[in-house]
Design a protein that fits this description.
The structure is a single chain. With 196 residues, the chain is of the alpha+beta class. The chain has helices spanning 13-23, 28-35, 39-46, 54-62, 68-72, 112-115; strands at residues 90-91, 104-108, 118-124, 140-147, 149-154, 157-162, 166-170, 175-178, 185-192. The chain has 6 helices and 9 strands; from the N terminus they run αααααββαβββββββ. Strands 1-2-3-9-4-7 form a 6-stranded antiparallel sheet. It has a 3-stranded antiparallel sheet with strand order 6-5-8, with no helix packed on it. A hairpin with a 2-residue loop joins strand 5 and strand 6 (157-162). One of its GO terms (molecular function) is DNA-binding transcription factor activity.
Length: 196
């Protein structure tokens, strides 16, 4: 263990950020300037005095040129291959933070950053919701509902999508996913550039 993982396998965000900042040869101030955040924010995260939101951690990581997936992936890199077995999908669920805690899972196929495309296998338990605060990020995303029903809101429009239905939109539009049905819902989606 490199000191950035806790005993339960969770990543120690502060220790990991400090290790990566040091590896990049940056001071806390230099990283803060690159990321456009207050110097104190980097210090508070590294020392564990503050637990960053997904949005603030994404902003800090932009100063290192890293995605959230790269930040949380502390395992060995997969050998290059066009094939990704089910047991090698990367679990990105922790990146959701409190959104849908324990009710939504996200698993990524391969190295999204290397390909400029993020492909996800998503599951939503009955009632699972990405939250009242709508998601917004640079890029485009689309997907196909492979099981169950998903209520998708994009901007002012809301629709219930069923198995076989699909969606495609500009991710800068505020959006939200919710499972209104009594059974688990499943989506295979893609986003470019990678969001998480």
């Amino acid at each position: 263990m490199d000191g950035t993982e806790e005993e339960d396998g969770a990543v120690d965000v502060g220790a990991r950020l400090r290790a990566l900042r040091t590896q990049h040869g940056l001071s806390q101030r230099e990283l803060a300037e690159r990321a456009g955040v207050p110097h104190g924010q980097v210090s508070m995260v590294e020392t564990g005095r503050s637990s960053p939101t997904v949005a603030s951690l994404r902003k800090i990581l932009s100063g290192l040129g890293l995605s959230m997936a790269e930040f949380f992936d502390t395992g060995p890199a997969d050998p290059p291959s066009p094939f990704v077995p089910a047991d090698r999908l990367r679990d990105l669920t922790p990146l959701l933070g409190r959104r849908g805690a324990g009710r939504i899972t996200l698993r990524q196929a391969g190295d999204a950053r290397a390909h400029g495309l993020q492909i996800l296998h998503e599951t939503y338990a009955p009632g699972a919701d990405t939250g009242e605060t709508m998601l917004e990020h640079r890029g485009a995303e689309g997907g196909v509902i492979t099981r169950g029903r998903i209520e998708l809101t994009v901007g002012e429009e809301t629709r219930i999508l069923r198995t076989g239905d699909a969606y495609l939109f500009d991710s800068r539009q505020p959006h939200r996913f919710r499972n209104p049905g009594p059974e688990e819902a499943e989506i295979v989606s893609a986003c470019t550039p990678p969001w998480l």
